[in-house]
Design goal:
single chain; about 220 residues; alpha/beta; Rossmann fold; seven-stranded mixed beta sheet; globular; binds S-adenosyl-L-homocysteine
Length: about 220
């Protein structure tokens, strides 16, 4: 959990900018107050390079190195809202740790978060950051998220923050009863944000609209 006291040099301007971001997401249709609270509280500026920190509360994706990006706050909120559906989750799998921002949001809404990143320096830095923020219910792995993390399955939530051309079978098989998988699917620049729920042996699929993510790449980066 990130303590509310941990503001690290954040002045009034920042508080205002954060409030503006929350208002914007609300206007864009985000309804889950727990999610909006986290957008307000999680210090996104600590997840990007210092040179970009003044833009951290804009509703935009930003570069985090290694050709990757921190997701746009609206997309983080939308995916999180779809994943939890207002419930507290027990076990969540995240594929694509990146800078760890989405991970930090999830850590407040689930008992345990398991997160996989294929680019080692990103995964390491995310781990360090979350430790500094006092987030302890996350387990990190450097590896290929295409295969999921079977040892901790089943999950009641799986979130993928990079886009494969099709939903990986392994992820579906690790989704527990009543669980939801939220994943962008499709070719670069035109992916459908998809929510799949396992219900009594059936998989119910719904679309949450078009998004643009970096591709889910096979294999761990060497
Ligand atoms: N949620 C992250 C998004 C980072 S972008 C954030 O807000 O920072 C997507 C991430 O997925 C990148 O860091 C990329 O390296 C990672 N990724 C791509 N393919 C992967 C795979 N097969 N397994 C694990 N991570 C992968």
């Amino acid at each position: 959990m990130i303590s509310k006291g941990d503001r690290r040099g954040i002045g009034m301007t920042s508080a205002r900018t954060r409030e503006r971001l929350v208002a914007r997401l609300r206007a864009a249709g985000i309804r889950d107050e727990a999610v909006l609270d986290l957008i307000r509280e999680v210090p996104r500026h600590l997840f990007v390079d210092e040179a970009l920190s003044s833009r951290a509360y804009e509703d935009t994706a930003l570069p985090i190195g290694h050709g990757q990006t921190i997701s746009q706050p609206y997309v983080v909120a939308r995916m999180t809202e779809a994943l939890t559906d207002g419930r507290r989750l027990q076990r969540v799998l995240e594929v694509g740790t990146g800078c760890g921002y989405q991970t930090a949001v999830l850590a407040s809404l689930a008992d345990e978060v398991f997160t996989i990143e294929r680019v080692e320096p990103l995964g390491r830095r995310a781990r360090q950051r979350l430790k500094e923020l006092g987030v302890y219910n996350v387990r990190f792995r450097i590896g290929d998220g295409w295969e999921g993390w079977p040892a901790n399955a089943p999950y009641d939530g799986i979130i993928v923050t990079a886009a494969p051309p099709e939903v990986p079978e392994a992820l579906l098989s690790q989704l527990g009863e009543g669980g939801r998988l939220v994943i962008p699917v499709g070719p670069r620049g035109r992916q459908e944000l998809t929510c799949i729920e396992r219900r009594g042996g059936r998989l119910e699929e719904s679309s949450l609209g078009l998004v643009s993510f970096v591709p889910l790449v096979h294999g761990r980066q060497q």
